[in-house]
Design goal:
Shape: globular
CATH architecture: Beta Barrel
Number of domains: 1
CATH topology: OB fold (Dihydrolipoamide Acetyltransferase, E2P)
CATH superfamily: Nucleic acid-binding proteins
Mean pLDDT: 94
Distance between the termini: 31 Å
Amino acid sequence: MTSSIKKQQLIGTVVSDKMAKTLVVRVDLRKRHFKYHKTFKVSKRFKAHDDTGEYHVGDKVVIESCRPISKDKKFKVISKA
């Protein structure tokens, strides 16, 4: 039986590719202040799993949530954006 759980997908920029099979991806999000309604930009960094090693610093990539691969890695790289 397959579950139809929709996984979280984010688009970000590769910041670091120095680790083996791991990328650090910066995701920029736009948030809105609850009281003053001004929008502002927030960035967050995620570690993502990359088996092939084809992505490098500066590439725009799509990452998707998955089962925990290590303590910090809970995303895997799907494709270039």
